[in-house]
Design goal:
Number of helices: 24
Strand order of the largest sheet: 5-6-8-7
Radius of gyration: 25 Å
Length: 530
């Protein structure tokens, strides 16, 4: 059970790989969409030839990036799930991904299924109703020039997982002397070429049933209305300590579970994909836009931009007077990061493990926020959640987004979070930052160098011999250790950690928030020096 949980967590982290590219592309798309808003920039500027040319170029680039999502997921999963020589896995998965769909294309051709025979017009001429013809046509797509099943990111995940499995098993394989040239890493692409056709055949037979189930689940979520939106927001926050919220988010953002829509004659699946496609469309369909954004950042802004920073203030106000100077900078940094970018874990890990009441309250408020934004018909999207997203995709887009309702609810959330946190912390003596008498909050030395930080983290983790794997996501240092019992939690907290999660006896996560890249690099450099 522990191994399965660890595997899913590792997969969740791997699925985060393409997100930074997609979020950046979405931000660029949001900025250029502002240039097309006559209300903000004026009619003459919005319709100027130079502006239109620039906007068209950006939309072409961003559209291409979203079209590459399946192979981006394949590469990210292969790298994330491979233990060593990750660059070889990345090389091999490109081969796997292309061959995977080429074989499916060949099998489709054997059944007489081609791009020409699956157009809506052709299917209707063959006797299908318009609705059935559209449903059937949407089962297929042309991906990187190859006609295949419309598997989206699932196809990339399948290719990535298979490649990682083959790579982990064969990248150290030694062949007989006569064939030694093909040993080791060179053997991995060979095994991919030999085995991936069998994966394609299995997928060819199984995918139609999987596709039906996924579409049915997406339809169920779509029909569940505000209840489904509440459950998504509530469960997404409850899963934060486990890291499994990444899996849930990516399924909603990039697969039919998050919805399917027809935009400019193209079928688009996933809430974030639909939002960006609709944002780039010449004429926006507000029903499609609002239906997609109900799972996006409009539901997170009230508690990320307003609620959690107010919770930080409550933690500061309830801290002991002698310790306030020591926690002030930490809480301000955590609140500012959350406010601007939507990275919440440095704040959340200050209370979720020590106060179930505050954890459930926070999850409930998240679900309620998603539900209310849906009820109010707000249309603010993207995947960040901080003020940057609210400004670009809400305020600067115009009043059609109803961003002012986000701000109004956010102000209510700020008051609610402050008073609830203050009451619970004082009533139950919750040991949030600044309320502990241990020596974690001793006077810190002057600013540590990267070498000093790496040494402290390494010591806190039980030394180099205790570390098997090092990785990180947006806010957490993810480790596979020989024994998590050897760690020194007090020492790790002195390195700037906001929380520690022991998954099992060997898997550990240390929360650093926005400093996680710096912490990871420092640790890796220190290990190289030892």
């Amino acid at each position: 059970m522990f191994k399965l949980r660890t595997y899913i967590q590792k997969l969740g982290k791997a699925l985060m790989g393409p997100l930074s590219i997609i979020v950046a592309s979405g931000l660029l798309l949001g900025i250029v969409s502002i240039l097309q808003n006559p209300t903000l920039v004026g009619e003459s500027f919005a319709h100027a030839t130079v502006v239109q040319t620039f906007v068209g170029g950006v939309q072409a680039v961003v559209g291409t990036m979203f079209g590459l999502l399946p192979i981006l997921f394949a590469i990210s999963v292969a790298i994330g799930m491979s233990r060593e020589d990750k660059e070889i896995a990345a090389f091999s998965v490109v081969i796997a991904f292309i061959l995977f769909h080429v074989v499916i294309n060949y099998l489709l051709q054997l059944k007489g299924i081609t791009a020409e025979s699956t157009t809506v017009d052709q299917l209707m001429s063959d006797g299908l109703s318009q609705i059935k013809a559209v449903e059937t046509s949407n089962m297929y797509e042309t991906l990187l020039g190859t006609f295949t099943y419309r598997m989206g990111v699932f196809g990339g995940i399948i290719a990535g997982l298979w490649t990682a499995m083959i790579h982990n098993r064969y990248h150290t394989k030694q062949l007989p002397t006569a064939l030694s040239f093909f040993s080791g890493n060179r053997f991995v692409p060979i095994m991919i070429v030999v085995t991936i056709p069998f994966v394609s055949i299995a997928s060819f037979l199984i995918w139609p049933f999987v596709n039906t189930a996924i579409n049915a689940l997406g339809g169920l979520i779509g029909k569940s209305g505000v209840i489904g939106t509440f459950l998504y927001g509530f469960s997404e926050r409850l899963l934060i300590p486990t890291g499994l919220h990444h899996v849930l988010n990516q399924l909603i953002r990039f697969t039919p579970i998050g919805g399917t829509a027809m935009i400019d004659g193209e079928t688009v699946s996933g809430a974030l994909s639909i939002f960006n496609a609709e944002l780039a469309a010449p004429v926006k369909d507000m029903d499609i836009l609002r239906n997609a954004t109900r799972f996006l950042t409009q539901g997170t802004h009230p508690f990320m931009v307003f609620g959690l920073p107010a919770a930080c203030y409550a933690m500061y106000k309830t801290s002991y007077l002698a310790q306030r100077p020591k926690v002030k900078g930490m809480l301000i940094a955590a609140a500012a990061t959350c406010f601007l970018t939507g990275i919440t874990e440095p704040i959340e890990f200050a209370f979720i493990f020590i106060s179930p009441i505050l954890w459930v309250f926070h999850a409930f408020m998240a679900g309620l926020s998603f539900m209310l934004m849906n009820l109010f018909g707000v249309a603010v999207g993207n995947a960040g959640g901080g003020f940057i997203d609210l400004a670009i995709f809400g305020i600067l887009q115009g009043t059609y987004t109803r961003w002012y309702l986000v701000v109004a609810l956010g102000l209510v959330y700020a008051v609610a979070y402050y008073f609830v946190f203050k009451y619970v912390i004082e009533k139950f003596d919750v040991k949030t930052p600044g309320r502990s008498n241990d020596d974690v909050l001793e006077d810190e030395e002057e600013e540590s160098t990267e070498n000093d930080l790496g040494k402290l983290i390494l010591q806190g983790l039980g030394g180099a011999d205790n570390i098997q794997e090092i990785d990180n996501c947006i806010s957490r240092l993810r480790l596979v250790l020989k024994d998590t019992a050897l760690i020194d939690e007090k020492l790790l907290k002195k390195t700037g950690s906001m929380g520690i999660v022991k998954i099992n006896d060997t898997n550990l996560q240390v929360v650093y928030g926005g400093q996680v890249e710096y912490a990871t690099r420092s640790l890796k450099m220190e290990i190289k020096r030892n």
